[in-house]
């Protein structure tokens, strides 16, 4: 019987373009394989042992004859390719409409609402990434106090302010004010507030909060909460569900920080779900590879602490193919790796039509009510 689920979602680690990727401008995307090519191969022995090499050809990663985990691929039926689409679908909510309002940048009306909330001019406003926007506008921002704004081209508006210009708590409150002002206006589903620190050329993230509209349907955390399960969120995952259904949340500024927070919970949370967001990985290929390999080296620390009744799922929310110039989310399959004491090994779970199959499996394992969508693969995980 499963008593505890540890679900890791690694931001942007896609393993190949979905059939409709060309509709999103992402034909040929393969985040993990292209990252490996860029750095001359990846050293991921623990993910390799779980069966990663069976999912996609990755330089440096072998295809194990007898994996000690189960493996498969998650497809996405939702329209879109951001964290909202990925996390919500994994938890049982499929989004049928792909918004186009932010595809070319943050619209003027939304910029006006942000400028009113901050009492400052906004700069940027185009589809981009955090590192690119800080490199381009960081010094202008610090000199003039203007707010750095950009979008991922999907449902999200990002806002960044240096902690010396505005304390993080004030940044977060003003983003909350802007989110309220934009409610019902066709504005963003998510505003991400980034506090950053450091000097030009050495800027670093100092804090983050995700302000997200509530999911429009019943989610995995909802069902587990109704079954009196404990649901702990680590990293940004709590914000992506507007906190709904979670018992507690724990922020994490890095992949290592989120992993350490999870390890610390193992002796304190005997049952339920540890829902862990890992990432995003750095935008430079060498740094992204180093971060992913460091995570792989830490996995035995987790595996050694598992007990009978635990199951670990490792997946992703979308792709982020760093070989593409914009370094924005890409429309890709997500890996699915599963392990736990006394569970089956070497089972190919196949290509799942929807990531909601994972959420359905989690609620099935923890004996909660079914989600509206998704097919559980729990029986395939039981040792024969």
TrEMBL record:
Organism: Nitrospira moscoviensis
Membership in a protein family: Belongs to the phosphopentomutase family.
EC number per UniProt: 5.4.2.7
InterPro entries listed in its UniProt record: Alkaline_phosphatase_core_sf, DeoB, Metalloenzyme, Phosphopentomutase_DeoB_cap_sf
Signal peptide: none
NCBIfam families on file: PRK05362.1
GO biological process: metabolic compound salvage; nucleotide metabolic process
The Metalloenzyme domain, residue ranges: 286-368
GO (cellular component) term, any one: cytosol
Protein's name according to its UniProt entry: Phosphopentomutase
Keywords in alphabetical order: Isomerase, Manganese, Metal-binding
An MF annotation (GO) of this entry: phosphopentomutase activity
Manganese is among the record's keywords: yes
Source taxon at top rank: Bacteria
Top class in the EC scheme: isomerase
PANTHER family, A to Z: PHOSPHOPENTOMUTASE
Transmembrane segments: none
